[in-house]
Amino acid sequence: METRKITKSDFDQIVGVIDRWWGGPISTFAHPIFFYELGDNALIVEQEGRLVGFLLGFIVFKAPKTGYVHLVGIHPDYRRQGVGRLLYQTFTERCRSLGCERMKAITTTGNDGSISFHQALGWTASEIEDYAGPDRRRIVFTKDLGPPSN
Predict the structure, then answer these.
(1) What pLDDT is attached to residue 139?
(2) How does DSSP assign 75-119, residue by residue?
(3) Torsions phi, psi of 9, nearest 5?
């Protein structure tokens, strides 16, 4: 499997498959800003030229500098084969190299697969009331990377 930065054709392909991969309408979360303005840190994984996973993320420069995972998708035929772990490791390494001290991701309550995945990678989960607005609880995942090395 090969991990690389996203291209415009990759982004177009993601928009075309994301609803099927997620099992419901979510393509609005794959906003073009994640290619045009924030695409330097967006990643895909390919297997023999076939898109099998993607991670849309960016860096938050507010202290502490944080790598933020916005949206991840894995082709259903490639789940539980290390694609998600590879995307997270690659993105985390990139964020660390750019001076990030922390990683962050969010999911909805009840998304047990996401919660288990993040905890298996050593992320801490906290349930935050009203995180996404009144009565809209979210699970916020964080992972400390420590101070940047010079």
Answers:
(1) 97
(2) -GGGTTTTHHHHHHHHHHHHHHHTT--EEEEEEETT-HHHHHHHH
(3) -65, -35
Residue 51 tokens read as 């898109």
How many CA atoms lie within 13 Å of 50's alpha carbon, on the beta-carbon side?
10
Distance between alpha carbon 39 and the CA centroid of its chain, in Å? 13
Beta-strand pair 124-128/43-47: unpaired
Q: Taking a C-beta distance cutoff of 8 angstroms, is the pair 42, 35 a contact?
A: yes
Residues contacting 138, CB < 8 A, separation 6+: 106, 107, 108, 109, 127, 128, 131, 132
pLDDT in tens, the chain (150 residues): 999 999 999 999 999 999 999 888 888 888 888 888 887 899 999 999 999 999 999 999 998 999 999 999 999 999 999 999 999 999 999 999 999 999 999 999 999 999 999 999 999 999 999 999 999 999 999 999 988 775
Q: Which domains does the chain have, with CATH numbers?
A: 2-102 (3.40.630.30)
DSSP state of 26: -
Query: Phi, psi (5° rounding) for residue 111?
Result: -85, 75
